[in-house]
Amino acid sequence: MSILEYNGGCVIAMAGKDCVAIASDHRLGVQLTTVAMDATRIFPMHDKLYLGLTGLMTDITTLDQLFRFRLEMYEMRENRKIKPKTFSNLVSSTLYGKRFGPYFSEPVIAGLDKDNKPFLCSMDLLGCIAEADDFAVAGTCAESLLGTCETFYRPNLEPEDLFETVSQSLLAALDRDCISGWGAVVHIITKDGVTTRELDGRMD
Hints:
Layout: E1 10-15, E2 19-25, E3 28-30, E4 33-36, E5 42-46, E6 49-55, H1 57-78, H2 84-97, E7 105-112, E8 118-123, E9 129-132, E10 135-139, H3 142-152, H4 159-174, E11 184-190, E12 193-199
Antiparallel strand pairs: 1-2, 1-10, 2-11, 3-4, 5-6, 6-7, 7-8, 8-9, 11-12
Subunit structure: Component of the proteasome complex.
Subcellular location: Cytoplasm; Nucleus
Keywords: Cytoplasm, Nucleus, Proteasome
């Protein structure tokens, strides 16, 4: 088993019409043993930017604290909110700076730019950026997520339709992965704010 799969879990982000969704499951495990059912893998950076982290939970916690610190330093120095594109470069350079002893985490970034257009990207543990116009996935069931997203995704979805699409994509993929699941959380980011909803999923 890869160290990236040791704790299980996955993250999915999907773009809509002037909105974006990011979601993850709740399971925290030690290989095939479930330890907790309230793991947090999605972290708000500001009201239009969210960061999802998959991989080793200790590194996820470390990176969350590190990025919050760097974000606060940026906002104090620049006196403005960071753009999603700029934040993705900050995350990438941080990961690449530790390439000889990397953090075992693969980030997914979702947000709205200054024109309220969706921005999505995912990275590997060395910080290689892969921007996407439709959806981005990471985690133990990434292959299943790619299949379900390709099936359900449609361009220019309204927020409610986007919620339904990302929820069905995630729940269908979780049913095919034994080290992810135990419910999920979905965040819908629009220009008017963020809506967060909990999903019931497979509980075995």
